[in-house]
Every structure is written in C-alpha cells, then in structure tokens.
Amino acid sequence: LTPLSPGSTIGILGGGQLGRMLAIAAAQLGLRCHVYCPDASSPAFEVAAKYTVAPYENTAALDAFAKDCDVVTCEFENVPAATLARVSTQCVVRPSAHSFAICQDRRAEKELAVKLGIDSAAWRDVPTLAELDTALGELAVPSILKSRHLGYDGKGQARLDSMSSTSRAWAAIGNAPSILEALVPFAREVSVIAVRDAGGNFAAYDVTENIHKGGILHTSRVPASIAAETAQSAVDIALRIGNALGHVGVFAVEMFVIEEGGAERLLVNEIAPRVHNTGHWTIEGCVASQFEAHIRAVAGWPLPDTARIADAEMTNLIGADAEAWAAIAAEPGAALHLYGKTEARSGRKMGHVTRLRMYSKPV
Ligand code: AMP
User: Fold this and answer.
1) Residue nearest atom 7 of ligand 1, based on CA coordinates
2) Distance 353 CA to ligand 1 centre (A)
3) Cα of 284 to ligand 1 centre, how many Å?
4) What's the whole-model pTM score?
5) Integer angstrom CA distances of residue 351 from 70, 146, 264, 277, 340
6) Taking the CB of residue 341, how many other CB atoms lie within 10 A of it?
7) Cis before 304 (ω within 30)
8) pLDDT tens-digit map of 258-283
9) pLDDT tens figures, 39-64
10) Nearest to residue 126, comparing CAs of 109, 106, 101, 96?
11) Cα distance between residue 338 and residue 295, in whole Å
12) Nearest to 44 by CA among 29, 74, 62, 23
C-alpha cells in the first residue's frame, strides 16, 4: 500500500460541512480535494481545489470525477449504493461500499451488533404496519419506531406509548420498513470517534459525552463522566465494529450509558461510517483532528496521534444560533466555525463553537 503523495487528489462524495472540514484538513497535508455534490451551494465547494455539481445518478459525471481522483471517500452515509458501485469500478473507494451498506440500514446495524455479541436496545423488525402491533405487544412501551433507511438527526422516528395510534406512527416515519426499539432510560449518551487504516491499524479519540435536543446534537464534552473501564469498553466495542466492517477511515459509534446497581453498561445506538459531529472538538482539542485522521487513513498515510491535549466542549450553532457569531468571535478562548451556509433554516447546522479548558484526565 503506497501512501498518496502530496499533490494527489482525494474525491469527496457529498458537499456539506463535513466535506468542508475534510477538505481543509487535506489542504493542510498538501492534498487536493475534488468535491462532488448535486447542490450548487455546497459548503465544501468554496474550500476545495475542484468541484462537480451533478446528480448522484449522472454516470458520465461520476466517471469523469472518478478519473480525476486518486481515492474517493464520502462525507455522508446515504450515498446511493449504485453511485458507490459505479465509482468503485474506476477508483479506490474508502471506506468500501460494505461499510455504507451496513450503516445505511438500522436493521443491518442491529444484526451486526447481535453477531458481535454487543448489546443494544431491545428491538423488533417491522417490515409492514401489520407487524407493528405484534412488535409493540412484545416490547415494553414507550418505544421508538425508526425507519430502517435515511434516518438522521432524529428524522424518520416516532415515539409510541400505550395510547399511540400505530397507523399514525407508521405514517409519521413515511410508511417505510422500520425497526421498533425500546426506549432506553439512559444516564448519558457517549460516542467513540475511531479511525482504522487499510492495514487494520486502529486508533480512537477519548470518549465524548453528548447532549441531544429534539433529536439533534447540541453539545459534546470531553472527558466524558464515565468510569475508566466503561470508556475502555466503549473503545473496544468500536474496535470490534471497525474490524467487522473492514472499515477504512474514521467512523463513529454512538452509545447509551445505563446505570444498573451502581455499574455502568453500554448499549450501541448507531454507527456512522464517516467523520461525525460529536468529533468536531478534536480540531482544537487534539494533536490531529478526526478530519485529518480520515484523510490520512484514506490516503494510506500513517494514522495520526489521537491524543487529547485539553478538555473541550463543542456547541452546535443551529438555525438562528449562528446570529451570535460576532459575540462568539469576541469571546476569549472560543474557537468559532461557520459553514458558509447562507440560509439559516430552523434545525440546520450553521456552525459550531469549541471552548477549551485545562486538560484533565478522564475520570
Ligand atoms: P438516532 O437517530 O437513533 O441517533 O436518535 C437520535 C437521538 O434520539 C439519540 O441520540 C437519543 O437522544 C434519542 N434516542 C434514539 N433512540 C433512543 C432509544 N431507544 N431510547 C432513548 N432515546 C433514544
């Protein structure tokens, strides 16, 4: 495996803020990015060496893109399978289509966890509305109906209790194949941002504690207030998942921490085959960020040092939150990131701010 030389081109499918931060990290290493996205106002375009605006179904545009790149990666998990298959015939794609096939499908993620003996919330497969009543009878209420595909930031989810109408919940998630999941009375939510290279080398960042509001990430904090053994188990779970996927690049594993009789237990919630919002603090909080880690892994470079150098708290700037940019920019110690989005729709991630404190050891 020869590392790509500086000056090589990394293709990125998807042009959102994750692509933007990947392109910035690549530029730092002397690598160029070619971003492919159907949206003409993609945040990643303005920081990339090259970009293509075309639908994911445009085979001629995909072929030209693949020809221009030395390796291709993705910044979102819902890249259509046919797009990945087409690009894969002409260029190395990292991570491979397998990681996406699993992480695009909540049922496949659950089945992987079962296969690996990793705990997750109790669940039932719900292929049609008819099966929902049976599943609801078997799982304790309240529970959450989640569409198998295309769910993110709490979208494609409906909460059910004993009074809920199943047909209404089924309609709310889009009448699509789903899973029903028991509601977890978690004490906290954490995630592991990890990176794996093509040779199977693995590194992880310190476990992050996350607070969601309305299904959208609000704050991430390190160190997480969990026991050292729990943190070690979380990293071990990520390692096993990364190996099972044969993943190349950064990935994130979101987990619930439940407290049982004074002990902490982890339940895997979701796997993201990409850089992740809960890892944005690594830009200032670590020797090398998750974005650099991903670029290095897909370019065949040595994995970076993932050591944390400070305590950190990252807050998303969602919708109108970004209007406070001038005050944040004036705040000592605050690292402001704005994604260049012109339209501040409600619920839209417009930027984030990371605040560092003196390093403290994980609890
Ligand atoms: P997800 O899209 O599955 O990551 O869900 C978004 C957020 O909804 C999670 O981060 C949790 O805060 C909440 N959530 C999802 N599933 C469950 C569950 N089974 N029990 C409790 N909260 C959940």
Assistant:
1) 215
2) 23
3) 27
4) 0.96
5) 30, 27, 33, 11, 8
6) 18
7) no
8) 999 999 999 999 999 999 999 999 99
9) 999 999 999 999 999 999 999 999 99
10) 106
11) 21
12) 23
